[in-house]
Specification:
Layout lengths: L7 H22 L6 H12 L1 H13 L5 H11 L11 H19 L3 H17 L5
Amino acid sequence: MRPELMNALAVAYLGDAVFEVYVREYLLTEKGIMKPHELQRASVKYVSAYAHAGFMKYALSKNFFTEEEVRLFKRGRNCKGHSVKNKSVVVHNQSSGFESMVGHLYLTKQTERLDEIFELFKKYVEEEEVTK
């Protein structure tokens, strides 16, 4: 089935997992963190809804994304059915939009672009104080 015909939140579900793998690989191989407890603590600032939402705002302001990627983000962001716990609806929706875009890129085998996005994401997280 083509990703654009799938439920955007289902694609976001996959995108969340894909991005988690990117983060875990980065923490292990580039940061050299080996202890599970330290990995868990370090990953929080990369996989939080606040990090995803903040990154989207940052990258959109830099015109980093293609028109298609922005469309995918908006499709996931605007999808109904979000259940929000302990974070603002706006942050949650933006994070879901980001994850939906990542999931779509993964399903369409655009791994080179995912790598580029992750490189900018790493810089963003390392330079910004991502809170919550």
